[in-house]
Amino acid sequence: MTHSALCRLAATVAGTGCALLLACTAQPPAATVPTTLNKFTQDATLRQIATAQDERNTAALLPFLEGPDATYRREAAMALASVQSKTATPALLARLQDAEASVRQAAAYALGQTADSTAEAGLHSYILKETNPTVRRYELEALGRCTSRSGLGALVRLPAALASDTAALSGQAWGLYRAGLRGLTSEAAVGRLVQLLGSSNPYGARLAAANALARTRGLNLLPFAAAISAAAQQDPRYEVRSAAAAALGKAAQAPTVPGLLASLARRDPDYRVRVSALRAMNAAMYTPVKEAAWAALTDANAQVALSAAEYFLAYATNEPGTLFLEKADKLTQWRVRSTLLAAALKQETTGREAIRSAVQARYAAATSPYEKGYLLKALSEDPAAFEFVRQATFAPNQSVVIGTYGMEALVAMRHQANFPASQHAEFALTLRQGVLSQDVARMGIAAEAIRDPKLDLRRLLPNPDFLVQARDRLVLPRDLEAWQSLQQTIDYLQKRPATPVPVATAATHPINWTLVGELPAAQRAVVHTEKGDITLRLLVEEAPGSVANFVELTRQGFYNGRNFHRVVPNFVAQGGCPRGDGWGSSDYNIRSELGDRRYGEGAVGLASAGKDTESCQWFITHAPTPHLDGRYTIFAQVVNGMDVVSRLEIGDRIDKVELIR
Nearest Cα to 602, choosing from 566, 651, 641? Predict the structure, then answer.
């Protein structure tokens, strides 16, 4: 999940059925950390299974899946969850009859990861036969990942015998969530999710239902505004209140919703709920929520203040730009201030020239490349600033961060409805300059803009030769994301099918088993930042290759002095990029290890540009972000310092990462 890949994404337990969620929430550090060696140290067979997973060798894993040892059957099933080969579906379905519940659970998880529609009938049949509540929950969630539209009804209507089974209710809710992410929903499914959001249901069911209502596209939740409002105000868990608040954006026409969102933005004790409330506000409710948004600009939590500024940037109308300029000048948080300056420039006003001059003056005075980048981003709201932004983007001997933000600002500026037609050709030449700049970020961003059909640049840049020239200078796998963007644009201009992405094989960077053998099962790492320390528990037994890679880079001092280059409110803080802008990588890739973990609060995942393209960048989640589950490796968990994570901002420095026992 590199800078651009993650952007596209975003664009987040009590009872028997919720143990998985409990396993992923932040826990206080133990008084003493055990130094027991990890499971791979003494067991060559486990290393063999993990190596076959790393090599994506389904044929080597299947014999273990059917062998006499239940431990190895379970490990093989979990390995196949990362391989995701549909050729393993029949064997995994057979394991749903395994005598060991842990094997059945792993097989159900792997089937969900494979998302093979041919598993639908088998999963449905075994759900009715399963005696273990936890396994049944896994099977129901897997069914949501595999179900067809015609089979959705079976997931909506649980058998009467399961009506009071808390594990089954959680599994049903997660199954409906997974189906919703795939665009599969119905009126009956929405109605059932609203029921599952009720306070009498287990936490896992409420969390899944709230997220399903928030993230499933195209829902009209107006008929359910009262029930969702009750959850947003009254649920004891911030995670449920936050997702329910987000869902209220789909019930905006209800008369009570704007006032409720304004109240949540002002008063909810958890900053993540306040962020969700601000994000759920839209243009239609501008007048009743405006005062709450103004107040949120000075919220003690920077993520809330930024969300308020983003609300004004997106929806403010008929406001004098000078009003935003005046408010911006009183703010101390540079990202909030820069976003409000963008809102000032966006307003149609006679004072725009003075506002533009003020932004340019701040740019000249700023010392942080990240603040400079955000000020260029603000200037993208004003096409009259094109030449200023272009010169800043290509200025010699500057931070690559500024060039990246500048290129993004130029593209955003071209999307403005009032961008002059007389400058279309000049803009096309600027993109060509970006492609030929030999800077991977400017190359990738410019290439993406060239293939944007809304910009109609094929007529101005019909010959892809300069793109081919730039692509051939890149080094794989280090420059994979820029390579992808350039190749996609070449294919677009030549009107041919997409070229497959050249993903590196395991042989280019195998798991370092010698290093893995040195690590205790409870290995810790401390990320020392300028805001405070964050302690991680490394999950070596679940993601040995990813942990080994992180440990190796840590021992080299690779992360020392890096920055958190991306912070998205109520989502993630991301760092570890050698360039500092999200476009950097190491000279190798490692493979995804998609184990049985959820992205709860404080999960630490590896960024990628697609499956099996992980490298050096990692991110920490602020709150549950279940749409990332099973798609990005979780290799660590925050066990202390979530208060620090909540205060991280773009540009904050990683002083040092240190391994501790």
Answer: 641
> For residue 569, what are its two tokens?
């409110």
Q: Indicate the pTM of the whole model.
A: 0.94
Q: Which class is domain 512-660?
A: mainly beta
Q: At what angle do helices 166-181 and 203-215 cross, to 10 degrees?
A: 20
- CA dist 420 to 314, 424, 430, 446, Å? 22, 7, 15, 19
Tokens for 651, please give them: 């540009």
Residues 184, 147 contacting (CB under 8 angstroms): yes
β-strand 634-640 against 618-621: which pairing, if any?
unpaired
Taking the C-alpha atoms of residue 413 and residue 400, their distance in angstroms, rounded to an integer, is 20
- Tokens read off for 342: 């963008």
- Residue 620 CA to residue 568 CA, distance in Å, equals 11
Q: Name the residue with tokens 């130094």.
A: 35
Let me know how long the chain is: 661
Picking from 237, 234, 257, 254, the residue whose alpha carbon sits closest to that of residue 246 is: 257
Look up residue 237 and give its two tokens: 């868990």
pLDDT digits (tens, 9 = 90+) for 23-69: 333 444 444 445 689 999 999 999 999 999 999 999 999 999 999 99
578: how many CB neighbours lie within 10 A of its CB? 16
**Residue 564 CA: distances (Å) to CA of 284, 359, 651:** 35, 24, 5
d(CA 97, CA 17): 20
- Identify residue 91 by its one-letter amino acid code: A
| DSSP SS3 for 337 | helix
> For residues 293 and 265, is the Cβ–Cβ distance under 8 A?
yes
Fold classification of 44-252 (topology level): Leucine-rich Repeat Variant (1.25.10)
CB 445 within 8 A of CB 411: yes
Asked if 599 and 638 count as a contact pair (C-beta separation under 8 A), the reply is: no
Q: Which residue ranges make up each domain of the chain?
A: 44-252, 512-660
Instruction: Count CB-CB contacts under 10 A for residue 447.
Output: 26
Give me the half-sphere count of Cα atoms (radius 13 Å) on the Cβ side of residue 641: 24
Q: What is the β-pairing status of strands 654-660 and 532-538?
A: unpaired
Torsion sign (Cα): 651, 411, 380, 342: negative
Calculate mean pLDDT across residues 213-239.
Answer: 98
Q: What is the pLDDT of residues 483-526, one digit of tens each?
A: 999 999 999 999 999 999 999 899 899 999 999 999 999 999 99
Cα gap 561→581, rounded to integer Å: 14
Beta bridge partners of 209: none
Which among 203, 148, 138 is positioned nearest to 172, based on CA atoms? Answer: 138
